[in-house]
Structures are given as structure tokens and as C-alpha cells.
Task: structure prediction
Amino acid sequence: MDEVQRIADRLRREIPQAPRGTLRFWGEWFGRPHDNIHTLISCRAEKNLLQLEFDQGESLFVWSPDGLTISEQRFRISDAARVRWEWFYYGRPQTPENRYFQDFTKTAAGITASTNVDWYKATFHPTETEPAVEIL
Result:
């Protein structure tokens, strides 16, 4: 069994006790700190990709995850090759045109970030010294 499958198996067992909270990707908050509450409801693994599903139709994709920490107080994936968060614009219908993303990729030069958000100019400052994914 590879690392991605081991992480997925452990997450499936721990989902009922997994913490709810706000997401951070390499130190970048999704929204304001502690502004949103996200609840993990399922996960699956396929090759090097871990896919997590959340209670409001959000999806988190983590390529080559490494270093899972999970308890009632903490959810952390220490490192990854890439992290992509997808969500529907809150308060609007869950349709393809209302689906947005934040995408973070680890490169030799650091972490690059992009988004398709169109209602403000997003600026990102991710750092490799922070965990790839956290729920706080």
C-alpha cells in the first residue's frame, strides 16, 4: 500500500472525529482566519492524488501528500507536490460557472499560486515552511 492510500484509509476512519474549521494552504488562509467552517465528509485516493470532499460541495485535491496529522483538534498535511481547493461561490447556485479554485504548486523556486476568482484581485504569499494543508 502506498502513502496516499494509507492517508486515505486513516482519514476515512477519523472523519467522524476530524476537526471542523478554516483552511490554510502553505500559510495562506482561505478567506479570513476562522471566518469559514469546513467539515470533511469523505475522501478517496487514486495513484498519487488524495481527494477530500467537504459538506458544502467543496473539494480539496492533494497530490503526493506527506505527513498527515489528525486529531479532534488538528488536521495537517505537512507537505505535497500540489494542492487545489475548489468551491462554489457561497450563496449562489452550485453550477459550473460558480465553481472557483485556488491552486498551489510546489516548485524548485517555491510555492506558486493561482485562482480564477473574478470579484477581487487575489494576492498570495505561500511559504514552504508552513504545512501544505491545515484545518484550524
Q: What stands out?
A: Helices lie at 3-14. The chain is about 10% helix and 45% strand. The longest strand covers residues 99-107.
